[in-house]
Design goal:
The complex is a heterodimer of chains A (178) and B (453). By secondary structure, chain A is of the alpha+beta class. Chain A contains 1 helix and 8 strands, in the order H-E-E-E-E-E-E-E-E. The longest helix of chain A is centred in the N-terminal third of the chain and has 57 residues. In chain B, the strands form 7 sheets. In chain B, strands 20, 21, 22, 23, 24, 25, 26, 29, 30, 31, 32 and 33 form a 12-stranded mixed sheet that branches. The chains are: A alpha+beta (178), B mainly beta (453).
């Protein structure tokens, strides 16, 4: 009797233990996999955020010179402003937009022969003066902004020039046309 | 039972280890990321700090051999590397589209150091005006304007000191230039003034200017002031005036008309009211001059015929010394009136001047129709500073004396004839009751008198 009863108890216990073990293993593996995936996602998000912010604070653009051109394109047109930017940071910077007095520039001046070209950038020939553009560290780039005729810049009235990068950095300066 | 417990413990331990390892890995990774970000922030702060520490001053700009030559002083705390020079021809409105950039060959300067010969590769026309900008590797810029006072009117004032001057004397024309622009001005020189004469008295007034001082300011930083002066010599009278004007005050600068206050010449006169500004500190009131021979004071210029009666005098003086603090001019016993005959004495022989030394008072006596002198103690009578007025008496034959003499050459009895006179005053500027102080002497031209008919 003792052997028969003992044998039954042992089987059920083993089965139960096996089921429990399987359940724990399955659930545990699922939890571990889920948490590992989440942690990985967090790691990637954290990494991306950190890299983006690090690059953003590292990028530095100097609006080096602003030249108001009176006779570019046509005589006394006064609608071209050459803005020279220099990347003074340690990472490449992509300039996406330039604004004059809060007006986004969409037209750029290339040369006397093809003034006021469209916003297709870079142009088919000649030195590009348009946006978007990527400026490597220590390099400069001149943007020839075109205020579409009949809009002109006004002498002795300060203009605000704002430059925006892909990372969201904004650089602003002011200049007074002659 | 022991083996079953061990199995579950092992399984739990495995999961625990996995969980802990994952957590530790994630935390470590996060810490690493944050550390990198922190380093970036620190680096950025350092860069911004260096940008703020970067300061330089343009000490001179010349154009030898038609080449730009800029000298820069590093006044900041970090080395400076100049990466570019922008130059714009601002000579006329038609040339302003001419904009060029150059990379300087001389470009590095340590803190406190001087960098010379910047821009030697740039050809410029010395007489043209240029707007020049220096750019550093950190993005700082400094702009200055060469040979031009800019496209905007500067704050310029014209003054004249004084506006009223005696004819033939000089007034100072002063041009005050304040650089209210945002650019440093280089080689700032004024044009010559145009002098305009207003001939009111129709007496051919003149107005001339000497050269400007200084001729040039090498640099004029934003917010600083330059002062140019001219000596303007004017002649004329009666409301004549001279004004200086500019249509373009600075060479190559903005056209703005400036006119100075009118400078008015006045005739030099020796009246009691204007003598002080033309002559000396002690002035006399000519109308107060009086003489006495008997017991009556007289104020005309001709004495009665008298070869044996002595004379005495009184004159009122004013002390125009502006020094405050209770000071006065205490008169010395040697002060005197000196009268000299214009044609010599009898028989054309030379005569020493007739001296009448200062006395304390002169007392008249109507009963005897005479007067008497009270001897003068050295420095006992003072005329207060700042316009003090006092009447002084003269008549003694000697210093501190109370008597007169009518014999011999040295006497107080003036014979018939014409005389010219001088008032000779000695004294000390001191406080009342004190006998120490700075000595002072002055002669005042007296007017002529006639002794006897």
């Amino acid at each position: 009797m003792r052997r028969i009863g003992s044998s039954r108890r042992g089987l059920s216990t083993i089965v139960t233990a096996g089921i429990m073990l399987s359940a724990v293993a399955v659930l545990g593996s699922a939890v571990v996999t889920w948490s590992s995936g989440n942690l990985k996602a967090f790691e990637i998000a954290l990494s991306n955020t950190a890299v983006a912010n690090t690059n953003k604070i590292t990028e530095s653009v100097s609006i080096e010179n602003i030249a108001f051109c009176s006779n570019c394109g046509s005589a006394n047109s006064k609608n071209v402003t050459n803005v020279t930017l220099t990347n003074t940071g340690t990472v490449s910077v992509t300039i996406t937009q330039i604004q004059l007095n809060s007006t986004a520039i969409t037209s750029y001046y290339y040369s006397k022969n093809s003034p006021y070209s469209s916003s297709s950038c870079p142009p088919p020939s000649g030195v590009p003066t348009c946006l978007p553009t990527t400026i490597s560290p220590k390099q400069s780039y001149t943007i020839s902004t075109d205020l579409k005729s009949p809009t002109k810049w006004s002498s002795q009235k300060p203009d605000t020039i704002t430059v925006t990068t892909t990372r969201g950095s904004i650089f602003t300066t002011q200049a007074v046309p002659p | 039972m022991k083996s079953r417990r061990a199995l579950s413990t092992v399984v739990g331990a495995v999961f625990a280890i996995i969980a802990l390892t994952s957590t530790v890995t994630y935390v470590s990774y996060s810490m690493g990321i944050l550390d990198n970000y922190n380093q970036s922030v620190l680096t950025k702060n350092q860069q911004l700090s260096d940008v703020n520490k970067e300061k330089f001053q343009i000490s001179s700009v010349t154009v030898p051999n038609s080449k730009l030559n800029i000298t820069v002083l590093n006044t900041g705390g970090v080395p400076i590397n100049f990466t570019k020079i922008w130059i714009q021809n601002t000579t006329t409105s038609a040339t302003k589209d001419w904009v060029r950039s150059y990379v300087p060959t001389q470009n590095f300067v340590t803190p406190g150091g001087v960098l010379t010969n910047i821009g030697q590769s740039i050809n410029v026309i010395p007489t043209n005006s240029y707007n020049v900008k220096l750019v550093t590797s950190r993005g700082n810029t400094q702009q200055f304007i060469m040979n031009s006072a800019g496209a905007q009117p500067l704050n310029i004032q014209l003054l004249a000191f004084p506006t009223t001057v005696p004819s033939g004397f000089k007034s100072e024309l002063v041009m005050v230039v304040i650089n209210n622009s945002t650019s440093t001005l280089v080689n700032v020189s004024p044009n010559n003034p145009t002098l305009t004469i207003n001939n009111v008295a129709n007496d051919n007034p003149t107005c001339t200017s000497n050269v400007v001082t200084p001729t040039k300011y090498t640099t004029l930083s934003p917010g600083t002031t330059a002062i140019f002066t001219w000596d303007i010599t004017v002649t004329g009278t009666g409301g004549d005036s001279c004004t200086a004007s500019f249509t373009t005050p600075l060479q190559g600068g903005y056209a703005q008309t400036l006119t100075s206050p009118a400078i008015m010449p006045t005739a030099i006169s020796l009246s009691s009211t204007t003598y002080a500004q033309n002559s000396g500190i002690i002035t006399m009131d000519y109308s107060s001059f009086k003489w006495i021979e008997t017991s009556v004071w007289n104020n005309d210029w001709q004495f009665p015929a008298s070869g044996s009666i002595s004379e005495a005098f009184q004159v009122t003086f004013q002390n125009n010394n502006a020094t405050a603090g209770g000071y006065l001019l205490n008169m010395s016993k040697n002060s005197q009136i000196l009268l000299t005959p214009t044609l010599g004495n009898t028989a054309s022989s030379a005569h020493v001047p007739y001296a009448f030394f200062i006395v304390n008072t002169i007392n008249t006596n109507p009963n005897t129709n005479s007067y008497s002198l009270a001897g003068y103690s050295d420095y006992s009578a003072g005329i207060p500073n700042q316009g003090g007025v006092k009447t002084l008496y003269f008549g003694a034959i000697s210093a501190s004396g109370a008597s007169q003499n009518c014999n011999g050459q040295n006497n107080n009895c003036i014979p018939a004839g014409q005389y010219y006179g001088l008032l000779i005053l000695y004294g000390k500027y001191t406080k009342a009751g004190s006998f120490t102080g700075g000595t002072y002497a002055q002669t005042i031209p007296f007017f002529a008198i006639v002794g006897g008919p």
